[in-house]
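As a warm-up, study this chain.
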Amino acid sequence: MEITLTHGLLLVITGFLAGIINTLAGGGSNLTLPALMVMGMPAEVANATNRVGVTVQSITAMIGFHKHGKLDNDDKGPILLPTILGGFIGAALAAYAPSTLIKPLLLGTMLLMALIILVRPAIIAPELGTPVNRVKDTPKSWFWLTLAGIYGGFVLLAALAGSLRYDLVRANALKVFCTLFFTLASLLVFIKEDLILWVPGLILAAGTMVGAHLAVKLAIKVSPKVLKWFLFLMTLCGSVAAMLSD
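Now compare it with the structure written out below.
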């Protein structure tokens, strides 16, 4: 595929924005997927190519959060197990369920999360110092984490913060950790099926990497109150992008 300067700029800019949105909330792929398809890629190729950027941004964000001591190591395994299970269920739904059903559910979930952040922020954003619930001591978290694996980043963030009571920074750190594992699994499948266009994928990844790096710095430095509003705005951006992506 021939990559023009316009295409390159489009991928870098949308990748940058998606890196920020995905690191602090979720739904950034609603920006990058249309950008890839505008270049003439079939939906399945765009979906596969997009995973290169998601992988790179997840690695970048995870390293950043770990460097600042915000990646909780005690409960990563128990958190990862139900989310991976949900990821398999989500992949099956994406493969067989009609997009006319999946997209409204996805969009509705994002808008509901934005509303909760606005009206009852303590549900999604516990105060700093709130005791963390472990998965083994919180049976209901299995349901929410599995559901999060089906839906993706923003629901995973809600499950980690709402059910297990991680503050927003540590919840985001664990979210990108889990996202990396989902994405690597799907990336291997797409590589095997030769669906990835590597040049646009790597250009997109460069933008997502910068966006994720900036997002980690914002998450670490800003106050929890500002972070709540930033999460609200990022969720709205993802929702608007989803509505405009037809």
